[in-house]
Amino acid sequence: MGSFSIWHWLIVLVIVLLIFGTKKLRNIGEDLGGAVKGFKQGMRDENAPPPPKPPGEITSQGTTIEGEVKEKQKG
Predict the structure, then answer these.
(1) Domain annotation covers residue 41
(2) Which of 7, 14, 24, 43 could form a disulfide with 20 if both were Cys (CB 3.0 to 4.6 A apart)?
(3) Number of domains in the chain
(4) Percent helix / strand / coil, the chain, rounded to 5
């Protein structure tokens, strides 16, 4: 009584197929597979070092220069 036989699992499978249909089960499988792929890709990207910056690229240091305009010159 503690474990199910193969016949129990086959009956459960037939009932699930009748309730959901094969097309809906296929879509659920594709969605689940896509989610697992996305999760794996995200974990791989998180552990990867950032790509090196090309030489000669100007990068901002993120500092703000505070100042005040005294006069406007027409030029």
Answers:
(1) yes
(2) 24
(3) 1
(4) 55, 0, 45
